[in-house]
Amino acid sequence: MTRPSSPLPASARRDLVAILGEDAVFDDAVHRKIYDSDGYALDGVTPDAVVLPRTAVQLQQVVKWCVRHGVPYAARGAGTGLSGGCLTLGGGIQIGTSRLRRIVEVNEVDRLAVVEPGVVNLQLSQAVAHLGLQFAPDPSSQAACTIGGNFAENSGGPHTLKHGVTLPHILGATVVQPDGELAVWGGRSQPGPGVDLLGLGVGSEGTLGIAVELTVRLVPTPESVATFLAVFETEADAAHAVSGLIARAIVPAAMELIDRVMLRAVEEAFSFGFPLDAGAVLIVEVDGSARDLKHERPVVRDVLNEFGAREVREASSAEERTHLWRARKHAFGAIGRMSPNYATQDGVVPRGRVPHIVASIAQAAKRHDVVIGTVIHAGDGNIHPCVLFDERDDAQVDRALAACKDILERCLELDGSPTGEHGIGMEKREFMPLLFGPADLALMTDLRDALEPTGLCNPHKILPGASPCGELRVAGRQVAL
Amino acid sequence: MTIDAREGLVAHLGLAAVGERVVRPKHRESSRLCVETFVETRTPWWPRGGGGGDKEGDRTATKPLAPSDPDRWCLDMRGLDSILDYWPDDLVCRVGAGITFDNLQTTLARRGLRLRGSSLRPRDTTLGGAYARGDAGLRGAPGDSLRDQVLGLVAVAGGGEVVKAGARVVKNVAGYDLARLFHGSHGAFGVVLDFVLRLEAIPGASHCVALPTNFDAALDLLSKWRRPARSFDPAVQLWLNATASRALGGPEQGALFLMAEGWPESIDAWREATARAQGVTLANEAAQAWNAVRDLDANHALWIQLPASRLVRWWGDNQGWISGRGSQPNLVADLLAGSARLWSTPSPFDGELVAEVARTVREAGGWVWSPTAASSPSPALIRLKRALDPHGLLPPIPTPVLGPTDG
Ligand SMILES: Cc1cc2nc3c(=O)[nH]c(=O)nc-3n(C[C@H](O)[C@H](O)[C@H](O)COP(=O)(O)OP(=O)(O)OC[C@H]3O[C@@H](n4cnc5c(N)ncnc54)[C@H](O)[C@@H]3O)c2cc1C
User: Fold this and answer.
1) Which residue among A42, A203, A274, B184 has its CA within the 20 to 30 Å range from the CA of B137?
2) What is the pLDDT of residue B57?
3) Which ligand 1 atom sits closest to the C-alpha of A80?
4) Do B337 and A190 make contact, defined as CB atoms within 8 angstroms?
């Protein structure tokens, strides 16, 4: 089933142009190169062609064409995915949704929106802000990533601690199934009886079909917000404060831990005024009615102080809060300035074990002699260590990869998972047997075969097994991480 | 089931646990063994929980959506009723799938915790039963349904293999989420043995009100609250038509039942504001009213999925002819979830009326689920069923009477 990437034969090009028009089919070397990677920059896969349909019908016709001709394909949103999810592993066509970006309907009474998959996450929230509503999932990439991508990855974000990840915010999806036929999963209501195909589809990384329309929930923007920055001497103190807050029945909207290395990178980039001698900072945001916050503000302060914060500051204005979040959301960009390359990892541990994984990350950095800067969605136990390296130095690359592997294996030892938001994609397939037993994996295979009988819809992703690799960007890299 | 196999079960589970076509295991391993026996002897079977408010008591094989096949064995899961693990720092626990909501909530309450969104359910409902029925529990705000509290589970699939889904963590996107297979599928793919659940602290205060309101007024109130959106919404927003309201001891003309939760200061303010603004009748006997709502017999109800605004319009357009057919329709609408239960008293709706209701709901863009009528599953679902239940021993896949994609 696998085949190397190759340019499109003339007849195929003709067919696709007939469906989509000349300006929507790209098979020249430059475009194929542009689309050969996503946010997971370590591996690349050159597609045979890239197509950009303008309507759901066109997209469906492309899928049907692929099925007729046995050509593999993968959906691509904004290409910000961090596990190679949209790459056509083994060759095939990338079907981009960037021209499907209409907000079809907003219903303020039912608090829902119907959108095409290429609508950018932040643009939806901006479009409904005047109604006092927002789309709750807020990945740090929200200025670029699409709602189709969020659906496929079940994305999270700093504010998913309170509102949950993408799953509860998707009510329905119209999907071009792998055989090219349309199906409706869910609807406009909370899922009820019936096989939860929608629940299976969310987070299935574009391997069970391509969403061409999504019905999403909108939630009210909070009346009041309070954002605290607590400065701690050690990461461990900051990590313990997280459980302390939860134990006091406070569910913050967000709770983000930034370690010393990351702090320095962010400060150099944004001059926010972070204390450079701190071990870690914790950003805690609570929101709700003004009365709720009257109750929660002092509790948050007390708990942070109780757990050893040497300073607790509250953002004094909306601008200061926005600046603080911008600094946090651009942390990955900021750390990119510190070294030629970095690998962003994504793992999860139970919240009570955040202090353990923080210690393990420090040990891994020491053991492998690498610099690691970490941000943690601390309330969710979701860690993002960024391992710095220089790809020109093979030894550094090996050490960086070994550190990543150590950290993720430690997540598993701590009853966690090797991915909380970025997905398995092509990157972490080899971790699956460490997390799941043979019966679980066999059932997942059965599930995929039942819902995706063609073997053409984003193949070779998620499940381990013999499958083609990408074009390794990093010399000496042996294992997909 | 062969006599030898039955004796094997008796030897492992004890005589008391094996009845007339019913087995009542107490543990994960004994449940697995039962399924293995069903598979080996090719015995049709189905899993059951508490009966989910089934007023006629402990009936098994005749329960709606349970198969009427008299040779089918019942795997009664109510013996798996304990809290197996509890991780206080994570606010996560692992429980047997046969535990009832009442039992779980009572135990958790001793630690100031609860499972979110599960207050309005018949007392005997088990977690496994509610999950298999896709029952969100009359509390439909985003993230409130049982589906959203399940972090992981262990199940036995129809082929007899034990499978694990999810993990102990609140965020996890590793692989296909097998937990979803068992949600809403009425035991068609297997039986859940235990759940890993996310918990939360019991809010400092809560308050319920019942506002006497007909449907138009309810919609009016609803729009007022929701436009512009407010961040403080009642956690439960149910509208009951006159018949349902009266049957449950509520106001004559129909009622909007609201329950708000939060910090005491916020709830006090909400209570005062609600009373001032709408001149409402506060349900001082709130607990009594809620108990009545939660004990409503959802088993025999049609389950309609339509968002609030469409539901209101649909009811306005259709209540006349539904009542005109000699039935007394009862409607309880969960305005947050966008779903409603519709049932008839004293006798159930006939098939023709169900089909007609389904047609009109479908025209409004929604779905109708009925315990008695269903359409045929899609080819993808048929393949899924074959993969998970290779010997065809489990009940059929539940399908809507008519959905938006049906012809
Ligand atoms: C700087 C940075 C920060 C990030 N921060 C976060 C974060 O905080 N939280 C988080 O969860 N992720 C984060 N990510 C990862 C990424 O942004 C998310 O996974 C996002 O949802 C991907 O959206 P996309 O449109 O870029 O999808 P793509 O990368 O284009 O595709 C991702 C997957 O979705 C599939 N897909 C795309 N569209 C569809 C569709 N219509 N139907 C079916 N499948 C489809 C693709 O095939 C692929 O498997 C971050 C990435 C970067 C680069």
Assistant:
1) A203
2) 32
3) 26
4) yes
CB B73 within 8 A of CB B66: no
- Give the per-residue pLDDT at A478: 28
Neighbours of B379 (CB within 10 A): 13
Question: Which residues make beta-bridge pairs with A26?
Answer: A50
* Three-state SS at B88: coil
* B36 Cβ under 8 Å from any chain A Cβ: no
User: What is the per-residue pLDDT across B172-215, written as a single tens digit (0 to 9) for each?
Assistant: 999 999 999 999 998 999 999 999 999 999 999 988 888 888 77
What is the best residue among A42, A55, A76 to mutate for testing ligand 1's pocket, by most ligand atoms within 8 Å of CB?
A: A76
* Strand blocks (E) in A338-377: 341-344, 347-348, 372-377
Strand, coil or helix: B287 = helix
User: Which ligand 1 atom sits closest to the C-alpha of A144?
Assistant: 26
Mean pLDDT lowest among B93-97, B141-145, B395-399: B141-145
**In this complex, do A192 and B136 lie within 8 Å of one another by their Cβ atoms?**
yes
Q: What is the pLDDT of residue B156?
A: 97
Nearest CA in chain A to B304: A192
pLDDT (0 to 100) of residue B63: 44
ipTM of the complex: 0.91
**What gap in Å lies between CA A389 and CA A394, rounded to an integer?**
10
Q: Residue A302: is its pLDDT beyond 90?
A: yes
Domains identified in chain A and CATH numbers: 10-99 (3.30.43.10), 103-220 (3.30.465.10), 224-333 (3.30.70.2190)
Cα distance between residue A206 and residue B281, in whole Å: 51
For the record, the structure tokens of A296 come out as: 């929660």
Residues of chain B with CATH 3.30.465.10: 81-201
Q: Tell me which residue of A341, A336, A253, A334 sits closest to A292, measured CA to CA.
A: A253
Which one of A35, A36, A45, A140 would you pick to mutate in the ligand 1 pocket, going by the greatest count of ligand atoms within 8 A of its CB? A140
Nearest CA to ligand 1 atom 39: A148
Q: Is the pLDDT of residue A476 over 50?
A: no
Q: Burial, B206: exposed, middle or buried (Cβ in 10 Å; 0-12, 13-18, 19+)? A: middle
Pick the CATH number of B81-201 from 3.40.1400.10, 3.20.20.140, 3.30.465.10, 3.30.70.2190: 3.30.465.10
The reported pLDDT for the residue numbered B253 is 83
pLDDT, tens digit, for every residue of B289-312?
Answer: 566 666 555 556 788 999 888 998
In the structure, what pLDDT confidence band is assigned to residue A481 with cuts at 50, 70 and 90?
very low
Indicate yes or no: CB of A462 within 8 angstroms of CB of B223: no
**Correct CATH for B205-294 of 3.30.2320.30, 3.30.70.2190, 3.40.50.300, 3.30.360.10:** 3.30.70.2190
pTM score, whole prediction: 0.93
Q: How confident is the model at residue B56 (pLDDT cuts 50, 70, 90)?
A: very low
| Residue among A112, A189, A345, A434 with most chain B CBs within 10 A, to mutate | A189
Q: Could you tell me if B205 lies within 8 Å of chain A, comparing CB atoms? A: no
What is the predicted pLDDT for the residue at A330?
A: 81
Mean pLDDT, rounded, of chain A = 91
Q: Does A192 touch chain B (CB under 8 A)?
A: yes
Read off the amino acid at residue A384.
Answer: H
Residues of B in contact with A195 (CB under 8 A): 181, 184-185, 188, 381, 384, 397-398
Residues 59-118 of A with CB under 8 A from B: 107-112
Strand, coil or helix: A67: helix
Nearest atom (ligand 1) to Cα of A214: 41
Whether residues A417 and B167 touch (CB distance < 8 A) is answered with yes
Give the nearest ligand 1 atom to A425 CA: 49
Fold type of domain B302-369? Alpha-Beta Plaits (3.30.70)
Residues A121/A74, Cβ–Cβ less than 8 Å: no
Q: Residue B338: which of A190, A193, A288 has the nearest Cβ?
A: A190
Q: Where in chain B is the domain with CATH 3.30.70.2190?
A: 205-294
Please indicate whether residue B343 or residue A99 has the higher confidence score (pLDDT): A99
